[in-house]
Amino acid sequence: MKTEITERIKSPTPKFFKRIRTIGLTLGAVGGALLTAPITLPATVVTIAGYLATAGIVASAISTVAKEDK
């Protein structure tokens, strides 16, 4: 099982999923920056930042293991 995951990660990623990975990384970075901001933010902004970070991490992880069928 572990080798299957390793092979999937190393295999070529389709162009669409590369875009999704980039968007996910961006969302995760924005969410993380808002969560670690040195100023006090409203609770709504902190909640949205948490959702952004989570969605970004999940999108990046899923798009990384997508592979092209030959």
From TrEMBL:
Keyword Membrane among UniProt keywords: yes
Domain of life: Bacteria
Keywords: Membrane, Transmembrane, Transmembrane helix
TM ranges: 20-39, 45-66
The protein's name: Uncharacterized protein
UniProt source species: Olivibacter jilunii
